[in-house]
Every structure is written in structure tokens, then in C-alpha cells.
Automatic annotation (TrEMBL):
This protein's name: Methylenetetrahydrofolate--tRNA-(uracil-5-)-methyltransferase TrmFO
Source organism superkingdom: Bacteria
Function: Catalyzes the folate-dependent formation of 5-methyl-uridine at position 54 (M-5-U54) in all tRNAs.
Residues binding FAD, per UniProt: 8-13
Biological source species: Thermus composti
Gene name as annotated: trmFO
Enzyme Commission numbers on file: 2.1.1.74
Principal place of residence: cytoplasm
Protein family per UniProt: Belongs to the MnmG family. TrmFO subfamily.
Lineage summary: Bacteria, Thermotogati, Deinococcota, Deinococci, Thermales
NCBIfam families: gid_trmFO (TIGR00137), PRK05335.1 (NF003739)
Length: 443
């Protein structure tokens, strides 16, 4: 059987390759690192996480929780790795970055049906192909796509939060707590009104690091840099990443005026990131501002925030709900390139693209999950959204049909969760040929 090409070794490409291998289809996985690095990546590992280490909230009332459950049912390699590399994060699924990417790299690289090619792909490969090149798709490949399909690209810019060393945090000025008394997995740095005012004034005057060609920036709303939020108004941060609601300082018995939350980044708890503080500021400015935060006056920054360019397709113009390009049988897109936002969503679309690429290789038509499932709702959105002003989408309850009957918000979401997971499981069970268990791909 001819090998299927998977271009890109991020979460989407890794999941696509794994799904193909489970179905016995040989894979040629292209990853240009380390021969050519990106502004965001630091290693040559597959599925390297470069922004937040969270795969989203868990549970039956969370839309990402449903997508996580669907991926577990599907035998996802990303979910398997996430369980092994899990770190405490309250109600969210967060991972140790190195352990997570190391596990996926080891699993894939030792499979007998895979050929791992470390080079940049500059043209669309012939044959059945999954394009999962992620937010930093090379200019050469982007130009090749434009030549074939037309100029249907949009670009937006997102940013990563700084990470500080735990031992450098002054714990006498912070407190552990989750909002509304939930699990105390976060460190909270409280601010008085005067401290917030000084911080805000310094933030809006801070110097950004923006290349000359980054003009008319178009941020995805869920990833707006903290300095851009601050420029929207004095109180914007107080209703965003610095909101104190539900956080009571045990030393005062009251909610602070503002709060900066820190989340554990690695399993050992040595590194903590500033929640919601994605930034594109110059590094000296980042250090100055971080050290204005109570408890972080002597913080050692082990990774500064970075801002990088993301490239994605105008999915409604180019893709069907199976993630196959319209009018280009056997060519699929997955991940951020396909128009989704988030690690979990990228992996899920990688699974579907890999499944359908395998089906094409086996002489079968591609398929899509039911609309009640979160993955089904997500890919239907990509295929049917308004192409004018299209922006990437992440898992949310608005993607799936509501349930009938009078019930509270919590009960309704739980019912949607159960219905979606049942529909997705039935869809998996009806696949022909069936999707083998994950163990079938192990060697």
C-alpha cells in the first residue's frame, strides 16, 4: 500500500499519523524541525506544546470535557499522553510539556509503518495527504496552497504567557485558591487599588516587540495579548485575566481589588505561568512589569512571552465537514491550519483527517461524526460558517444542538454531554472497517 503523507508533526499531525497507523496504513510524516526551526518552538520533538500547557476544562458541563471524552473513546494518542503527563490544574487537563511531547515522539518514531522525514515541505506532496502544518506554516507551502486554491488565507497573531520559577516566588504575598472555593491549584497574587493603578499605567506605556511587517494585527479574541486588553480601558483587565471574583484572600477575608493567577506548568511544580498574560512586549519590559506584581518582585523568568504569526485557511470556502479539500480528493487539512483554535481541537481534527485519509487509501469515502458530538459540531462549523471575517473556532456548546425540556443550565449541559458521547460512540462502533483498539498500533 502506498504511504500517506502527513505534513507537520504537531498535535494534529501526530494524531493523524497515529490514526493511519492503527488502520494499518503506512505513513510518511514530515517535520521540518530541527532543520528549520520556528519562532515559537524550542525542540525537535513531535507534538511540542509552545503556549499554554492546558488542554481545557474537564467534566460533563464543559464543552472541552466532551471533546476530551470523545477523543478517549477514539483511542487518541494525544489523550493517552496527556493522562501520563498530567499536572494539577484544578478542573482543567494540563500536562508536563516535556513528558507529553517525549511520549508521543517515542510512540510514533518506533512504529514499523512510519517514515519520519526531517525536512521542509515546500509543495503539496502527490498522493493522499494530510496538511497539519499548524499556525506557523512555512511561507513556501502557504504560497503553494495559494497557487492551487487561491488567496483564501487569513492571518492572526496570538501570544504565549511568561513562565516564572517557583522558588523565586515570595509565597508570603500570595495565596493558594481556586475560584469560589474550588481546588486550590492556583497561586494568586493580590493587588490593592493603588498597586493595580501603577501596574496598569506601566503596562499601557510598555514597549511592544512587533516586527515591521506585523501591521493591522488581527487577534483571535480568546488570545488577545494582555497589553492590548489594557488599551481597551482601565477596567478591562478587572473583568478579564485579573478579575478577583470568587477569590478570597485568607489574610484579609475579602476579595482583593485585582489578582494575578499563576498555574503550574510542569509535573514537578518548578515552573508556573501567568494565567491570561499572553504578551508581545519586549523582554526587558516583561521583566519590569512582572516584578511589579506582589510576590513576583524577585521572580526569575524561565520563559518570556512571545507573539507569533498564525496562518489558517478560510475553511468554509475550502473544506468539507470531512476536512477534505473541496474538489481535491485525497487532500485533507487538520489543526490550526484547518481553522480550529486550541491543542485539543487540533488533535481532534487530526484524528478525523487521519481516519478519512486512511479510508481514501482503503478505497472508501470519508465520513464525519454526528452533529450531536463536539467533534461533529466543530467540523460542521468549519464547513458551513460565514466565510466573511471567518476566525478560528474552539469547542463550545453553541456548536451542538440543544436538548429539549425544562432544566437548569447545568443539567442541560450534562444531558448534551451524555447525548453527544453516546452518539459519537455509536458512530465509532458503526465504522467499517472498525477502528482498531490503540493497543493494536503498539509494537
Amino acid at each position: 500500500m502506498e504511504r500517506v503523507n502527513v505534513v507537520g508533526g504537531g498535535l494534529a499531525g501526530s494524531e493523524a499519523a497515529w490514526t493511519l497507523l492503527r488502520l494499518g496504513v503506512p505513513v510518511r510524516l514530515f517535520e521540518m524541525r530541527p532543520k528549520r526551526m520556528t519562532p515559537a518552538h524550542a525542540t525537535d520533538r513531535l507534538a511540542e506544546i509552545v503556549c499554554s500547557n492546558s488542554l481545557g476544562g474537564e467534566g460533563e458541563t464543559n464543552a472541552k470535557g466532551l471533546l476530551q471524552a470523545e477523543m478517549r473513546r477514539a483511542g487518541s494518542l494525544v489523550m493517552e499522553a496527556a493522562e501520563r503527563a498530567r499536572v494539577p490544574a484544578g478542573g482543567a487537563l494540563a500536562v508536563d510539556r516535556e513528558e507529553f511531547s517525549g511520549y508521543i515522539t517515542e510512540r510514533l518514531s518506533r512504529h514499523p509503518l512510519i517514515e519520519l522525514v526531517r525536512e521542509e515541505v515546500r509543495e503539496i506532496p502527490p498522493g493522499i495527504t494530510v496538511l497539519a502544518t499548524g499556525p506557523l506554516t512555512s511561507e513556501a507551502l502557504a504560497e503553494a496552497l495559494k497557487r492551487r486554491f487561491g488567496d483564501h488565507f487569513l492571518a492572526y497573531y496570538d501570544a504565549a504567557s511568561p513562565i516564572v520559577l517557583y522558588e523565586s516566588i515570595d509565597l508570603t504575598k500570595c495565596f493558594r485558591a481556586g475560584r469560589y472555593g474550588q481546588s486550590a491549584d492556583y497561586l494568586n497574587c493580590p493587588m490593592t487599588e493603588e498597586e493595580y493603578r501603577r501596574f496598569y499605567e506601566a503596562l499601557v506605556q510598555a514597549e511592544k516587540h512587533v516586527p515591521h511587517d506585523w501591521e493591522n494585527l488581527q487577534f483571535f479574541e480568546a488570545c488577545v495579548p494582555v497589553e492590548e486588553l489594557a488599551r481597551r480601558g482601565y477596567q478591562t483587565l478587572l473583568f478579564g485575566p485579573m478579575k478577583p471574583v470568587g477569590l478570597v484572600d485568607p489574610r484579609t477575608g475579602k476579595e482583593p481589588y485585582a489578582v494575578v493567577q499563576l498555574r503550574q506548568e510542569d509535573k514537578a511544580g518548578r515552573m508556573w505561568s501567568l494565567v491570561g498574560f499572553q504578551t508581545g512586549l519586549r523582554w526587558p519590559e516583561q521583566k519590569r512589569l512582572i516584578q511589579m506584581i506582589p510576590g513576583l518582585e524577585n521572580a526569575e523568568i524561565v520563559r518570556y512571552g512571545v507573539m507569533h504569526r498564525n496562518t489558517y485557511l478560510n475553511a468554509p470556502r475550502l473544506l468539507g465537514e470531512t476536512l477534505e479539500f473541496k474538489g481535491a480528493e485525497g487532500l485533507f487539512a487538520a489543526g490550526v491550519l484547518a481553522g480550529v483554535e486550541g491543542y485539543l481541537e487540533s488533535a481532534a481534527t487530526g484524528f478525523l483527517a487521519g481516519l478519512n485519509a486512511a479510508r481514501r487509501a482503503l478505497g472508501l469515502p470519508p465520513v464525519a461524526p454526528p452533529e450531536e458530538s463536539m467533534l461533529g459540531g466543530l467540523v460542521r462549523y468549519l464547513a458551513t460558517a460565514n466565510p466573511e471575517g471567518f476566525q478560528p473556532m474552539y469547542a463550545n456548546w453553541g456548536l451542538v444542538p440543544s436538548v429539549e425540556g425544562r432544566m437548569g443550565k447545568k443539567e442541560k449541559r450534562q444531558a448534551m454531554y451524555r447525548r453527544g458521547l453516546e452518539a459519537f460512540s455509536a458512530w465509532l462502533s458503526g465504522l467499517n472497517p472498525p477502528l482498531p483498539s490503540p493497543e493494536a498500533a503498539l509494537v
